[in-house]
Amino acid sequence: MPRISKKGQDMPESPIRKLVPFAENAYKQGKTVYHLNIGQPDIKTPQIALDAVKVHSLDILAYTRSEGSEGYRQKIANYYAKNDIHVKHDDIIVTTGGSEALLFAFGSITDVDDEVIIPEPFYANYNGFSTSSGVKVVPVISKIENNFALPPIEEFEKLITSKTKAILICNPGNPTGYLYSKEEIKKLAAIVKKHDLFLIADEVYREFAYDGVNHYSILQEEGLENHAIVIDSVSKRYSMCGARIGCLVSKNKEVIKTALKFAQARLSPPTLAQIASEAALETPQSYFDDVINEYVERRNVLIEELNNIEGVQVANPKGAFYCIAQLPIKNSDAFAQWLLESFDVDGETVMVAPAAGFYSTPGVGLNQIRIAYVLNKESLIKSVNILKEALKVYKD
Ligand SMILES: Cc1ncc(COP(=O)(O)O)c(C=O)c1O
Q1: Looking at residue 16, what is its pLDDT?
Q2: Mean pLDDT calculated for residue range 186-211
Q3: Which of 2, 20, 309, 321 is 20 to 30 A distant from 92 in Cα terms?
Q4: Is pLDDT of 118 > 90?
């Protein structure tokens, strides 16, 4: 049989999705499964976006420009201006989700064997994107004991080698909920300028910043024009994960010129979804106020309930809608599978994401899970109760 590539073999499975067949089996057994594994919000998509797709006047569902339709990019630039981020439409390339923006960023700035420094734990698919680009992830360790606070900035500097091309942060963070302060962004900016590196910030959760703290974008940082690359997406902002629309933003013309070649190779981002995303930009602030309130309440309920379980440690998220919980078990992979295969409370069980896949350091995070608080409070309370009952009887 012809052989699969080494790269293909090295591609990690997504810890968020790899247990799906076990969930399917649980459904077949008639069980209800609470999905805490994936960041698929249950929040309604703005009606204005859904309507735009229903009433469009297209005769031909044609390609758009590779960088995305000009009208949409102009409006994205306006959206950024409202967020005190000043970019032009030609600093923006519309992509098929933030996922493709990450691939374009890696493709544009790294060569095989280059290194990218990433605070760990990180969004699991950074491992996959790095593998597919032949890039080595160099982790900066953050710990649950310190609420996943960023380690001293000097720790980053120690890791910089001649192969380092970029520092990649996720702000607010998936899976930790960590929200970077303005001071931290300034320190990171100083490092990337000093060592002439790129700073990639995945800001797909920009709006989801809690407790009165404002998000500070790397695009707001003066003097970082040639270094900053922002990854963005409509997926979470407007609960439009299935639209598959995101963007890459940089004031560095060479980055945009290069990313555009990757964009041309895949022809264009989805046309109908750009129409929906353009309409979504008209979503009133009241929608976000309600959504943010809802997530804060969910977070508070979830963290309180988790803290009530003996032996469970949890960091308090300040943004996004995830948390890492450390459980009194040895292997969360086996535990998560067992929950789906062999455990239920009155016919109901939970699906969680084993956290080891959110680290690149082998053997770390084995007793942790990532929980997405994308379900209503009642379901979250039920889910945590299922975890609590499961931990009483589970044997590693
Ligand atoms: C941190 C982060 N970045 C990027 C993505 C990719 O999102 P999408 O491709 O749906 O825009 C996700 C999805 O969960 C995410 O959590």
Answers
A1: 82
A2: 96
A3: 321
A4: yes
Nearest to 383 by CA among 321, 296, 301: 301
Q: Is the CB of 96 under 6 A from ligand 1?
A: no
Reported as type and span, the H/E element at residue 282 is none
Q: Which residue matches tokens 């695009």?
A: 219
Q: For residue 267, how many other CB atoms are within 10 A of its CB?
A: 10
Check if 39 has its Cβ closer than 6 Å to any atom of ligand 1: yes
Cis status of the peptide bond prior to 121, with omega within 30 of 0: yes
Pick from 106, 87, 88: which is nearest to 98 by CA? 106
Please give the structure tokens belonging to residue 60.
């031909």
pLDDT at residue 45 in the model: 97
Look up residue 191 and give its two tokens: 């490092």
Mutate to test the pocket of ligand 1, among 99, 266, 323 (most ligand atoms within 8 A of CB): 99
Average pLDDT over residues 154-168: 95
Ligand 1 atom closest to 96 (CA): 9
CA 20 to CA 27: how far, in whole Å? 11
pTM of the model: 0.95
241 lines ligand 1 (CB under 6 A): yes
Among protein residues, the one whose CA lies closest to atom 16 of ligand 1: 174
Say yes or no: CB of residue 319 within 6 Å of ligand 1. no
Question: Ligand 1 centroid to 41 CA: how many Å?
Answer: 12
d(CA 366, CA 383): 21
Pocket test for ligand 1, best of 235, 237, 244, 371 (most atoms within 8 A of CB): 235
Q: Among 284, 371, 276, 285, which Cα is nearest to 321's?
A: 371
DSSP 382: H
Q: How confident is residue 322, by pLDDT bands cut at 50, 70 and 90? A: very high
DSSP-derived secondary structure letter, 33: E
Distance 204 CA to ligand 1 centre (A): 7
Instruction: Look up residue 146 and give its DSSP letter.
Output: G
Which atom in ligand 1 lies closest to the alpha carbon of residue 170?
Answer: 1
